[in-house]
Amino acid sequence: MIRMTSLPHSAFDLLDDPVRRWIWQQKWPALRDVQEKSIPAILAGGDVVVSAKTAAGKTEAAMLPLISRIRAAGHSEKPGFAILYVSPLKALINDQFRRLQGMCESCDVMLHKWHGDVSADAKARARKRPTGVVLITPESLEAMLIRRGGEIPFLFSALNAVVIDELHAFIGSERGMQLQSILARIEVATKRHKIDRIGLSATLGDMRLAAEALRPGNGSGVTIIQGMDPGNGVKLQIRGYHENAGDLEPEDSDEAVAILDESSSPKDEFGIPDAVVDDLFAYTRGKRNLLFAGSRQKVELYTDRLRRACTDSRVPNEYFAHHGSLSKTEREDVEQRLKEDARPTTAVATTTLELGIDIGDVETVAQIGPGFSVASLRQRLGRSGRRPGKPAILRVFAIEPFPEKGGHPLDRLNLGLVQSIAMVECLKSGWCEPPAKAGLHLSTLIHQTMALILQTGGIRPAAAWTILCSQGPFRAVDKKLFADLLRCMASPENKLIEQGPDGALMIGAYGEPITASHEFYPVFATEREYRMIHDSKALGTYPLSSPIARGETIIFAGRRWKVLDIDDRARVITVKPTRAGLPPYFAGEGGAIHDQIVVTMRNVLTSQESFGYLDSNAAEMLEAARSAFRDLKLDAKSIIAHGDGVLIFPWLGTKKVRTLTLALLAKNFEATQFGHSIEIQSCDVDGVRSCLADMAEGNVPDENAIAARLAKPFIARFDDKLSADLMMLVTLTERVEVSVLPSISATVAGEGQMI
């Protein structure tokens, strides 16, 4: 059982005197709920997960008792960092440094930040006299272990606790496995059986899975803290739009009603209706906002359209792009303007501003489309409503295809709008996606094996397995599988490692240039990119895989540029401002949708419930979707004829739909996963139903035949180094769900309620 803490009435009295004095200086009227609960639990020692809404004071909930702990332990009397604070972003580290600086100074505790932008001199001083708190990214921590492996006992033997900020950003991911492995390596190097771990997060679905992710193999020993801060309330609206809806005036700004007919003239550019731009401009102009536009390309397009709206209205621009391909300077300028500049500002972002970067008070949040997770929606909603008495405000802009006669059935179902409603309903019920269960992560294990060799200067296979698998996070990898992986890494094709005369593993001929590069420290794949330059100022980076030529125009950083020159050797694109511009191309795919969201979508379509947070146009679009749902008889069946083929609606999440699609391909059907459906060409309903009924009886294709149909097997960074057998094993374990095929097929073939 996971231990739950009780609420103490005197948490403040448990803190060290300088810590309490600092709280008095802040003039807090009281501790927050999450702080009252966390302080006694963290003071008592052990692993703790702290979960509460955004801006509920989770950082202080961890650091107030931890600083009290290290002061009581006499941290300054022995060398070594006392608290290791790991954060997923450099910008978050910079924010937390500013946030914790006063607290640490008041308590006579040194505070260090450590990432790629911190000077070598500052790092050298910290290494020479390590003490206090160090704020660091996983990649910088990896670099420290690899470059300074012999110093790890000196740096971390006095470690009192590890804090993992934004825990949800690590769970089930490559970076999460890397971080867990790094922490296990530190425990081994310092001969510490267990160093306390404190995980902080605003969005955690299944707390037991989160506890297991924090301490693999012993999640039952993790204390769970859930803050119950009531917040300031929420105002939420979903607004509906059609592509090419025509130039029609709404009846009023809050309840727009579009009268659509086939004669309406198209009024959009790059798929963005003018009505959406007009409403975004009306709701955000003159305020401080975040607009989550989705992909990097959409961020650029919406920033460009809204910037031009400012020009058309003869007002100063207040819309700025923010995404990972922009330069650090470009991003920080936007963040600083939001935080410290009184001028109205809207940051148009991908997920880069979803995490807890301090950008001050944001009045409203807008989102284009449904997004991919309820956890993300919750995180975004928490970015506004931080001032006392001010509710969080979120508007979702759902854009659907124009419902033309004879159009595709999916266009009639308005599934983007329906998904948005389903996510809000899940959010209202308190549900969000549980953390993903750990898979094999063999690509990350390749990375960590080479990192461990570099850290130790050479290590025997049995010892490497013990550190990485038995004691580390790769617990699904047994000794035989690890031996197979080592042989694969040492193969003539890979030569990532080799074995010395004494049996120790060493870096191989092909592994040396990989590990010698600074690009080795991140475990995730990084695309080769060009730097985009204007007047000697770096605007950001543009992927090499994207088509671009001299003389072309492009939209980047929310502005329009003409390409003057492309230096392939230096990987530099030189540009100048221009009035024309095409949208940039960035590779990448959206996230997977959880089963619960799609099941809720079907429930929305089958019910007659009205939702008060829909504007009038969205409400009409929902009724049209429900009517189409009934007309297509999807309330009674899951397979319908379409053209010379069929459409299947499994009403399940991305992973299960992908598995069923691959199985149908293995059965020689021309199947394509298309949104929330599967489209099959050149067949009839009876033939598909017969095939599904056969699979429901257990006659599913061979699992290897299913996995072999996956179009992009190489996803993780070192997937291409895996043998065919190992890659097949990863695919079957992590990317498809062959075991549930009979039950999925039975449900779809039986035309019953989806589960």
Summarize this entry quickly.
The chain is an alpha/beta fold and 755 residues long. Helices cover 39% and strands 17% of the residues.
Give structural notes.
- This protein is of the alpha/beta class and 755 residues long.
- Among the domains are: 12-226, Rossmann fold (3-Layer(aba) Sandwich), CATH 3.40.50.300; 234-416, P-loop containing nucleotide triphosphate hydrolases (Rossmann fold, 3-Layer(aba) Sandwich); 636-749.
- The protein is 39% helix and 17% strand.
- The chain is built from 26 helices and 26 strands.
- The strands form 6 sheets. A 7-stranded parallel beta sheet has the order 3-4-2-5-6-1-7, sandwiched between helices. A 6-stranded parallel beta sheet has the order 8-15-14-11-13-12, sandwiched between helices. A 5-stranded mixed beta sheet has the order 19-18-22-21-20.
- A hairpin with a 2-residue loop joins β18 (529-534) and β19.
- α2 packs parallel to α3 (58-72), α6 (138-147) packs across α8 (174-189) and α8 (174-189) packs parallel to α16 (442-456).
- The protein starts with 16 loop residues before the first helix and ends in a 6-residue tail after the last helix.
